[in-house]
Design a protein that fits this description.
This protein folds into two domains: 191 residues, Ribosomal Protein S5, domain 2, CATH 3.30.230.10; 130 residues, Alpha-Beta Plaits, CATH 3.30.70.890. It is 46% helix and 18% strand. The chain is built from eleven helices and twelve strands. It is globular.
Length: 333
C-alpha cells in the first residue's frame, strides 16, 4: 500500500512575524500548489531524490540559475531531518515503532524562496506520511512544533511557528503567540477561522524576486532582542492590526480589511529595507485599487480586490511585469 500525503503553501494575511516576537497573525493555506510525499513498505529504508536534488547540469550557467531559483539545498535533507525528529519524538513519548522499513519520495510545485512556506510543506507532508505509516497520532499544535524543530534545531533554518501551524491545522488560523501561553504550554493559542470569510483575495508572485526568509528577518530579530523602541512598538501595532482584522473579517467589513492589509505592509516598510522590485509589486497592485502586502518574507504579495473588473485589471497590469496573479483556493479540511 502506498501512503500519499499532501501539504500546501501558506499565505500570511495579517500580523507580525512569528519568529519569537510573541505576536499575533492570521494565515491560511491555498491548494493552487502542493507538496506531495509518497511512502510505502520496503526491505530497506530508502529516500529517493527528486527535482530539487539534481546534481547534474548542462552548463555552469544552468547550475547558477538553479541555485538562484532553488537555493543550495534540495528536499533530501528535509526528509532525513523529519524522519529523525519523528523518531526522537516517539522515543521521548515512549511510542514503540515496529521494525518495518519504508521507501519515501517527495514532489513539490510550490514556488520556492517566495515566502510561501514551501520547505515546511514538504516537512509537514513527510511527517503526516510517517504518522500514517506507523499509526501515530500527534496533536496539531505539537505537530507544528515538531515541524519547526526540523528546520530550526536540525537544519539551522530561520523560521517561526506561523507557517507550521497553518499547515498542521489545514484551515485558516488566528494565532496568538503571547509570551504567557508560549512559556506555559510551549505553543500559542490558536483559533480556527471560517474560510468563507476570506473574500476576493489574490496572490501574486514573480519567481526571479526570491529572497530567503533570513534576508529580511535576521536584522529585525536582533533589533527586537536589544529592545529597540521603534521595533517593540511596531510589534504591538501588528498585534492590534491582527485583532482588528479578525473583527473586520467576522463582520465582513471589506473596507477595513483593505486598509488593514495596507497598513501591515506600510509598517513593515518603515522598519526594514525592502528591495525595489518588491516595493514595485506592492505599489503596482495598489495602483489599480487593490490592497497589497507580503505573503511572507518577500517575493510574493497578497491582498484584496473589490470585484471581477478590478481583478482582471490587476491581473493584466501585473502580468505586463511578468508577475503571476492567482485567486487562492483556500484549504479548509
Amino acid at each position: 500500500m502506498i501512503i500519499e500525503t499532501h501539504s500546501y503553501p501558506r499565505a500570511a494575511v495579517i500580523g507580525n512575524p512569528s519568529d519569537g516576537y510573541y505576536g499575533k497573525t492570521i494565515a491560511f493555506l491555498f491548494s493552487n500548489f502542493k507538496a506531495t510525499v509518497q511512502l510505502y513498505h520496503s526491505p530497506e529504508l530508502k529516500i529517493y531524490p527528486q527535482g530539487l536534488d539534481i546534481t547534474s547540469f548542462n552548463s555552469i550557467h544552468q547550475l547558477v540559475e538553479n541555485v538562484n531559483m532553488q537555493g543550495y539545498y534540495g528536499g533530501l535533507r528535509l526528509l532525513k531531518a523529519t524522519i529523525k525528529v519523528f523518531y526522537e519524538y516517539c522515543q521521548k513519548q515512549d511510542i514503540q515503532l515496529d521494525k518495518r522499513n519504508f521507501t519515501i519520495r517527495y514532489n513539490s510545485n510550490i514556488p520556492l524562496r517566495l515566502g510561501l512556506a514551501g520547505s515546511s510543506a514538504i516537512i509537514t507532508a513527510c511527517m503526516k506520511a510517517l504518522m500514517s505509516f506507523y499509526d501515530v497520532d500527534i496533536p496539531k499544535a505539537l505537530l507544528a512544533n515538531l515541524v519547526l524543530n526540523v528546520e530550526t534545531v536540525e537544519l539551522g533554518i530561520a523560521a517561526g511557528l506561523q507557517d507550521r501551524v497553518a499547515q498542521a491545522y489545514e484551515k485558516p488560523v488566528f494565532m496568538d503567540f503571547n509570551k504567557t501561553a508560549m512559556e506555559k504550554q510551549g505553543y500559542g493559542n490558536y483559533e480556527v477561522l471560517k474560510a468563507d470569510n476570506f473574500q476576493n483575495m489574490y496572490i501574486a508572485f514573480r519567481k526571479n524576486l526570491s529572497e530567503g526568509t533570513e534576508v529580511v528577518h535576521n536584522n529585525l530579530k536582533a533589533r527586537y532582542n536589544i529592545g529597540e523602541k521603534v521595533v517593540i512598538e511596531a510589534m504591538e501595532k501588528w498585534k492590534g492590526l491582527t485583532d482588528s482584522y479578525c473583527g473586520a473579517l467576522k463582520n465582513n467589513d471589506q473596507q477595513a480589511i483593505h486598509d488593514l492589509i495596507n497598513q501591515n505592509f506600510d509598517l513593515r516598510r518603515s522598519l526594514v529595507p525592502i528591495s525595489a522590485g518588491n516595493i514595485d509589486m506592492v505599489e503596482t497592485a495598489r495602483s489599480v485599487g487593490a490592497s497589497a502586502k507580503f505573503t511572507g518574507s518577500g517575493g510574493a504579495i497578497i491582498g484584496t480586490f473589490t470585484d471581477e473588473t478590478m481583478f482582471q485589471n490587476l491581473k493584466s497590469t501585473l502580468e505586463k511585469k511578468e508577475i503571476e496573479v492567482i485567486k487562492p483556493n483556500i484549504v479548509n479540511k
